[in-house]
Amino acid sequence: MSERKILWIIKYRPKRVDDVIGQDEAKKTIISWLTEWAKGRIPYKKALLLYGPPGVGKTSLVEAIARELNFDILELNASDYRRKSDIKRIVGTAATKKPLLKKGLIILLDEVDGIDPKADEGGLEALVDVIKNTINPIIMTANDPWKEQFRVLRELCELVDFKELTENQIIALLQKICDSEKIYCEREALRWIASRSMGDARAAINDLQAVAEGYGKVTIGLVRAIVRGREKTINIWRTLNEIFYANQAWAAKKAVTQSEEDYESLIRWLNDNIPKKYSDPLDLFRAYDALARATVMLSRAKISGEWGLLSYVFDLMGPGVSLARRSEEILKTRYGFPDWIRLMAQLKPMREEREKLAEYLSYRILASKSTIMNEVIPYMMLIFRNPSDPVIAARLALGYNLSKDMIKYLAGDNTENVIRALEKIKRARPEEVGKETKRGPEKREARKEKSSKGLDYFIKS
Ligand SMILES: Nc1ncnc2c1ncn2[C@@H]1O[C@H](COP(=O)(O)OP(=O)(O)OP(=O)(O)O)[C@@H](O)[C@H]1O
Ligand SMILES: [Mg+2]
């Protein structure tokens, strides 16, 4: 059971160098560079920058080589070393300490292109300093090292190019996994998955696992129905960077179409972050104008079903926002979470309380949860929040046996008033207290029987 839950990209992560398919040039370069370190010689370039598309073996090859050459490895992700102070403290310390047991210590800085050169000011410079002073090998990885801000870093490093995997390489990898999992697979089906993965082994293995675990076999019919063409995805921080710092319109458009964020959320992200990067009023005007048009176009596409309009949405959100900036300056403010998303997260406990209350009342009033949410709870709120007559609310609370949390949700600032009135009624009529206490699905029938009780009590009194 638990075995099948393991992600195959983890289970089949290359353990030895030979398990890494392709990348022969890269293997040679990294191994001979590290062998120099192992012999106690410091190579001319003290850092490597491995670059290439996602899912082609950059990180896993370094791990496999470290294992085979008996190096320790300190693996850090961009989020661990974004700030200048982190780089000095974590990376700087490691770079100047000799490991006691192993041949050496590799410092692996994954995804250095995640450093935002403006917001994380001084980060790249600090990294350059660390490399100049390191006594241990430093290896960095990136998808795109060609941006201007990486120039100084690039010059300090030996660049190692990783290639997209070919269709046949990916098919071989998938076949090996199917053999080892004893899963029936058709060659054509593997070819289909490989051709849609765009050279990304991680994506291909994930697709294979989805079909194999869902259906127990991998046939061409199944993969045709299930595996969609895949665009490589990039996370929100990179999407924003690539829109705001794009030099070319096509790059900004690509950032939008490849973003892992859906278009509506991306509009919210842009909406909240444009003023963090642009300061010139005209730039701001142009950017918001483009974004507003994108929003209109997107809702038009959704209402009419004319999805061809999406292309204009992408043009407006990507190049539209990017080219809106005519001034040279980009502000150094950090990106922030959109307020809307933050608000939804903050309101989550309230929304959950509302759901719970609706479910509870649906058994008692015998109405659907949505009816209760839309038609009953708003009126109850009016009653519970009326400071001049907490007794009606207290009687309802007693009749329906509402919990303290439910009362609090309904009454808000008026909670104390209602609770006080409720205590008073309970003291005056102890026989009514605790009559409606059965809970749980097995008591559902019993509850239905009693369901009109709360209302009866309310009407009678
Ligand atoms: N060349 C390869 N040979 C065998 N498996 C591979 C290869 N490349 C990727 N994989 C598979 O894909 C997974 C992800 O690979 P890895 O993390 O090395 O990619 P990456 O190039 O570092 O990607 P990213 O740029 O997104 O960090 C691995 O666990 C492995 O299962
Ligand atoms: Mg990686």
Folded structure, characterized:
The chain is of the alpha/beta class. It folds into 4 domains: 22-161, Rossmann fold (3-Layer(aba) Sandwich), CATH 3.40.50.300; 167-226, Helicase, Ruva Protein, domain 3, CATH 1.10.8.60; 236-336; 341-460, no CATH class. It has helices spanning 2-5, 8-11, 24-38, 58-69, 84-95, 123-133, 151-156, 167-181, 187-196, 201-215, 220-226, 236-244, 249-257, 263-277, 281-304, 310-322, 339-365, 369-384, 390-399, 404-411, 415-428, 444-450, 453-460; strands spanning 47-51, 72-77, 105-110, 138-142, 157-161, 184-185, 217-218. It has a 5-stranded parallel β-sheet, sandwiched between helices. Residues 9, 12-14, 20-23, 54-60, 141, 143, 165, 173, 201-202, 205 line the site of adenosine-5'-triphosphate (ATP). Residues 9, 12-14, 20-23, 54-60, 141, 143, 165, 173, 201-202, 205 line the site of adenosine-5'-triphosphate.
In short:
By secondary structure, the chain is α/β, with parallel strands linked by helices. Helix content is about 60%, strand content about 5%.
Task: Give the key terms.
single chain; 461 residues; alpha/beta; Rossmann fold; Helicase, Ruva Protein, domain 3; five-stranded parallel sheet; 23 helices; 59% helix; disordered C terminus; binds adenosine-5'-triphosphate; binds magnesium ion
